[in-house]
Amino acid sequence: MGGAPAVVLGVETSCDETSAAVLAGDDLRSHVILSQDVHKVYAGVVPELAARAHMRVLDAVVDAALGEAGMELGDVDAFGVTAGPGLIGALLVGVTWTNAAAWGLHRPVVGVHHMEGHLFAASLEDPEAVPPFVALLVSGGHTLLLWVPEWGRYELLGETRDDAAGEAFDKVARILGLAYPGGPEIEKAARAADGDPHRFPRPMLSGGQRPGDDDYYAFSFSGLKTAVLNRVEELKAEGRLEAERNGVARSFQQAVIDVLVAKTLRAVEEKDCRRVLIGGGVAASGALRSALAAALDGGRLFHPTPRMATDNGAMIARTAAFRLARGERAGPDLTARADLPFPGLT
Ligand code: KG4
Ligand code: ZN
C-alpha cells in the first residue's frame, strides 16, 4: 500500500452499528461490530437512541478491536473515522472520539465518506476487487451507480430520486409486519414463494429510455412502496394477507432487483467494462448477487460477504489507508457532516 501508515484504526458510527477495526498494511487484524438492538423495538433507527448507544459502547468496541489485534492504542499509526453522511449525532460520537485519540497521541487522522467506505469493502476480502469497475452502492440511505476508473476518481451515473433501495426494503417489511432491518426478512419471506405473483411496476425502467436521458440511470422506489402498500390493504380487506405475505415480499424484491440489474447493465454497456462491484447493506442480498451474476454472463462480479456489506469499521480503515497513503490529513477542525458530498466526483 505504498506510503500508507502501518497500522490504521477505523471507526464507524454513522447509523446503528458501532464498529472498529485494525488494519495493518493489507492485513485485517481485527474487526468488531456491535449492532444496536434497541431500534428493533421501534421498527427503525431512532437517531437520538443511536447516538447515546454509540457513546455508551464505543470505548469497549475499540478496546475489543485492539485486544483482538494484540495491540494497544499507542500502537496505532493513524486513524480513520466516518465523517458523513449519516445521522449527525451518531457521526459526532465517532468523530469526537477519534479526534481526541488522534490528537492526544499526535497521530494523523482522516475523515472518511461512508459510501466510499462501502466501495472499498469488497477489496478487503478479494484483492482483485479493484478498479476499473461499474459500482452499484445500495444501502439504507443511498442508491448510487458509479463508474470507477481508479480509486479516488468517480463518475456518478445515477442515484435515487426518493427512497434508497435499503430504505424501501425496510419500509415494505414494516408494511408486511416483518422485523427491522427489513432486507434479510424480505429475502427470507421471498424464498418461501415462487415466481412473481404480484407483478409490481419496475420504476424508472422503460424501453424508451436512451443514454443521455436524465432518467436513464436514475432510481425511484417510493412509488413501488406505495404500490405494495395498496396491494397489502386490498389483501387485508380480503383476509388474504397471511397467505400472500411471502408472495408480496417476493414480487417486491424482484421488482427492485430487476431495476438495479437493468441499470447496472446499461452502465456496463456504456463503459464497455464487464467488471461490476456491489456494496452497501443491500449487497448482502443473495438474490441480488445471483441475479447480477447471471445477467453479467461471463463478466466479473465483486461483492462483499454479508458482514462486510453492512456497516463496519474495516471498510473505513481500508478507505482511510488509501487516503492517508495519498498524503491526506485532516486538521483539528475535522467534524461530522450529515450530508458530506461524495469525494472525487469528476
Ligand atoms: O449499508 P448499511 O448497513 O447501512 C446504511 O449505510 O444505510 O445498509 C443497511 C440496509 C438496510 O436497509 C437493510 O434492510 C439492507 O441494508 N439489507 C438488505 C439485506 N441485508 C441488509 N436488503 C436486501 N436484502 C438483504 N439481504
Ligand atoms: Zn452503510
Describe what you observe in this structure.
This protein is α/β, with parallel strands linked by helices and 346 residues long. It has ten helices and ten strands. The chain has helices at residues 47-69, 88-105, 114-121, 165-175, 182-191, 222-237, 241-271, 286-296, 306-309, 313-325; strands at 7-12, 17-24, 27-35, 78-84, 109-113, 133-138, 143-150, 153-159, 275-279, 300-302. It has a five-stranded mixed beta sheet, sandwiched between helices. A five-stranded mixed beta sheet has the order 8-7-6-9-10, with helices on both faces. A hairpin with a 2-residue loop joins strand 7 and strand 8 (153-159). The chain starts with 6 loop residues before the first strand and ends in a 21-residue tail after the last helix. The mean pLDDT is 96. Bound molecules: 5'-O-[(R)-(carboxyoxy)(hydroxy)phosphoryl]adenosine (KG4) and zinc ion. The site of zinc ion (ZN) has 6 residues, from helix 3.
Task: Sum this structure up briefly.
This protein has 346 residues and is of the alpha/beta class.
Any key phrases for this structure?
single chain; 346 residues; alpha/beta; 10 helices; 10 strands; 42% helix; binds zinc ion
Overall SS class: alpha/beta
Mean pLDDT: 96
Give the helix proportion (percent range). Answer: 40-55%
| Rg, nearest Å | 20 Å
The tally of helices reads 10
Estimated share of beta-strand residues: 15-25%
Rough outline? globular
Provide the succession of SSEs: EEEHEHEHEEEHHHHEHEHH
Give every kind of bound small molecule, once each: 5'-O-[(R)-(carboxyoxy)(hydroxy)phosphoryl]adenosine, zinc ion
The end-to-end span amounts to: 24 Å
Poorly predicted sequence stretches spanning 5 or more consecutive residues: none
**Number of strand elements:** 10
Sheet with most strands: strand arrangement: 3-2-1-4-5
